[in-house]
Specification:
Layout: E1 3-11, E2 19-25, E3 30-35, E4 42-43, E5 46-49, E6 54-59, E7 66-70, H1 72-75, E8 79-83, E9 94-96, H2 111-126, E10 131-137, H3 144-164, E11 172-176, H4 189-195, E12 197-204
Parallel strand pairs: 1-8, 10-11
Antiparallel strand pairs: 1-4, 1-5, 2-3, 2-6, 6-7, 9-12, 10-12
Helix pairs in contact: 2-3
Length: about 200
């Protein structure tokens, strides 16, 4: 079997409590590390199949879900440096779900998005009292009504996938905002890409 090796260096905020970091692949290979160094740096080696993406997921008690997908192209560099930040979880606050992508003008989830959402489902199942609202957002390009509908359908697609992964539906809700809540002004392609996002709102515990 052809295989490559991943040598990720994940850098986060200074660690007060220990963080569990899981590196997983689509083929089911997984490695979990306990990180307690003050600077939050570590390195790990994981054997994966050729051209296979992996996820790097950070877990800390009282923290929001934090995960990132590394594509096969990024892994071809062998030594990969990843910046993943741990955020404290607060009721009423929204958090971005990294690397959640859809087809153009579509609410169909891309394969890497399913990989991230599978990890998010694990996070929710490990915290069975959490109630979460999924929020969809678009940039300002195109028709307002179409963008609103697209954002709603994308949020619903995320909820449906999470339910398929075993998260109970009564813990989840979906809402689309279209282009009405940009994070940054829609003045450049880079800014528009930041506004095309899916977030989760921590409703209650």
């Amino acid at each position: 079997m052809n295989s490559d090796f991943l040598y990720p260096l994940v850098e986060g905020l200074p660690i007060i409590q220990a963080i569990k970091t899981t590196i997983g692949s689509t083929s089911g290979k997984k490695m979990t590390l306990d990180v307690s160094k003050d600077d939050g740096n570590y390195a790990a080696v994981v054997e994966i199949n050729k051209d296979e993406p992996v996820t790097v997921t950070l877990k800390k008690e009282g923290s929001a879900f934090s995960s990132k997908v590394l594509s096969s192209e990024e892994l071809n560099a062998n030594n990969v440096k990843v910046d993943v930040k741990v955020q404290n979880l607060k009721a009423g606050q929204t958090y971005n779900i990294n690397d959640l992508l859809y087809g153009t003008d579509s609410y169909e989830l891309q394969e890497n998005s399913k990989l991230i959402l599978a990890r998010f489902a694990d996070y929710l199942k490990e915290n069975p009292t959490f109630k979460i609202a999924i929020h969809g957002h678009t940039d300002d390009l195109g028709d307002d009504a179409k963008n609103l509908l697209l954002s709603e359908n994308r949020a619903k697609a995320v909820v449906e996938f999470l339910v398929q992964q075993g998260v109970t539906a009564d813990r989840l809700s979906a809402k689309g905002f279209g282009e009405t809540k940009p994070k940054v002004p829609n003045t450049s392609n880079e800014n528009r890409s930041k506004n095309r996002r899916t977030e989760f709102l921590f409703v209650s515990e």
